[in-house]
Amino acid sequence: MFQTRGLKNTLGFSLIELVTTILIVGIIAVFVLPKLLPESSYSAHALRNEFISELRQVQIKALNNSDRCYRISVFSDGYQLSTYQHNINNVFAGCIDAQLIRTEVKQDFSSGATIELASNGNTDFTMDFDNLGRANLGCNGACFVVKADEALNIAMESEGYVHAL
């Protein structure tokens, strides 16, 4: 309860010292630590989410445009969307014998990432979507494996629902 005058000045830290220390630790945490630690699985998650979004977008286009056929071509280094005009005589043939209308710019994978079929490991394949938004792959469940810094699965259900596993 009673303190001497000499000890009163050395019992704690000042507010300026505490704020300065917190700022320095925050700067180190934001800028220095990410460079010292190994890369996370951000690239695999980002590619998986991008490909799921592309599949869902193509499904919506296929549902809304019954006179068109949509194809996603996946290569070992990227993927590309193509739009075809249906063959009037055979609407259910998919993109076979259909007239090419438009090809989107190829989306390249970064840093050696790939998307492969879960069934056989192929990195080069195509998917045509019917008017109900279903792909012609014939798989149910885990259909794709995204490989970057880790392997992540993408599922496509028989009714066309695409989601991450």
Tell me what you see in this structure.
- The chain has 165 residues and is an alpha+beta fold.
- Helices cover 30% and strands 29% of the residues.
- The protein is built from 3 helices and 9 strands.
- Strands 1, 2, 3, 4 and 6 form a 5-stranded antiparallel β-sheet that branches. It has a 4-stranded antiparallel β-sheet with strand order 5-7-8-9, with helices on one face.
Strand-helix topology:
Layout: H1 5-8, H2 15-36, H3 42-64, E1 68-75, E2 78-85, E3 99-103, E4 107-108, E5 114-117, E6 125-129, E7 141-147, E8 151-156, E9 162-164
Antiparallel strand pairs: 1-2, 1-6, 2-3, 2-4, 5-7, 7-8, 8-9
Task: Provide tags for this entry.
alpha+beta, 30% helix, elongated, 165 residues, single chain
Short description:
It contains three helices and nine strands, in the order αααβββββββββ. The protein is α+β, with helices and mostly antiparallel strands and 165 residues long.
Taking the sheet with the most strands, its summary is: 5 strands, antiparallel
How would you describe the shape?
A: elongated
Q: End-to-end span in angstroms? A: 62 Å
* Beta-strand residue percentage: 25-35%
